[in-house]
Amino acid sequence: MIDVNSTKKTNLMWVEKYRPTNLNSISSHEHIISTIQRLIDEDCFPHLLFYGPPGTGKTSTIIACAHQMYQKNYGTMVLELNASDDRGISVVREDIKNFASTKNIFTNQFKLIILDEADSMTNDAQTALRRVIEQFTKNVRFCLICNNINNIIQAIQSRCTKFRFAPLDNKFIKERIEYIIKQENLKVEEDGINAVVRLASGDMRKAINILQSVSMTTTQISEEVVYRCTGNPDLKDIEEITQILLKDDFEFAYQHIQNFIIQKGISLLDILREIHFYCLSIDFPQKSMIYILMKLADIETRITKGCSDKIQLSSLVACFQQARELATNEEMNLENN
Ligand SMILES: Nc1ncnc2c1ncn2[C@@H]1O[C@H](COP(=O)(O)OP(=O)(O)OP(=O)(O)O)[C@@H](O)[C@H]1O
Ligand SMILES: [Mg+2]
């Protein structure tokens, strides 16, 4: 059992320190947790397939579940394999088959094989697994975990009960962050907590990691500190940039954003994402808004593919210039009608 106070000065990552140890301490996913709890209680545990975005509690849930089922026998009854292990067909033929084919003579319980990050298993390995899953159902249950369910072959999907772990609601992330703040005796302003929650976008791991890294740089955590430490643009700066894009000419807007990028060391991609959020909250003629959103998506794709930042910045400014023209035309049309 981890003593919170004694570990405070160690460099233990908070994501591990605060990993839920039992099913009750998993935030959100009430429906999934209660279903799994019922399956355990009624002793009709199926093969499971957990999928969903990172940091939503998939690994934590199955580990908490396994600890609850096996307690001190965890070590002998559970086989955990993740992306750091070999994921080829030989693992299915040897490690998995060996573990699955043997029965613990001291208990009637089935064993559990956790295949974490199963979407990185080769297709051959997944195909080989189909038969193993069926053949050893008496001895063993499988829990496959992945981010992208499309990378799991249909035959495996149909053998498992699927649970989707959706991005966590901000309410649950906030609750957990407030709990950690209390345990760690941190001083965090309300807007600082909101900034952490907002930047996490449904990923609890990201929220906890941001909190830990920010707490290492300062004792008084505010919204501004959170944005600065994570290399994200401040909301006020984004508001100003968007207003310039909407009102000023091409030359001025381009220079302003370029200077901002150089002075604050913030990436164009982060600026673009924040502008996208900000745009969703402003009142703008529909046609222009649709145009802007489509263009922002294109620019994001091009930046992530490694295209030139300067050209993409000019495309961003141009997109707003064009959207303004569309808005003016729309207004004129309305007046004429
Ligand atoms: N629902 C949750 N309740 C409480 N803590 C959570 C939850 N989800 C994630 N966490 C925190 O985030 C950390 C990472 O969670 P976990 O490893 O379960 O995510 P995951 O869904 O398996 O992500 P990945 O797909 O990247 O493997 C945990 O150690 C825990 O601290
Ligand atoms: Mg995981």
TrEMBL record:
Pfam families in UniProt: AAA, RCF1-5-like_lid, Rep_fac_C
Annotated SUPFAM superfamilies: P-loop containing nucleoside triphosphate hydrolases (SSF52540), post-AAA+ oligomerization domain-like (SSF48019)
The protein's name in its UniProt record: Replication factor c subunit 5
GO molecular function: ATP binding; ATP hydrolysis activity; DNA binding; DNA clamp loader activity
Keywords assigned by UniProt, alphabetized: ATP-binding, DNA replication, Nucleotide-binding, Nucleus
One GO CC term, this protein: DNA replication factor C complex
Domain AAA+ ATPase positions: 44-178
Origin: domain of life: Eukaryota
Family: Belongs to the activator 1 small subunits family.
Subcellular location: Nucleus
Gene Ontology annotations of biological process type: DNA repair; DNA-templated DNA replication
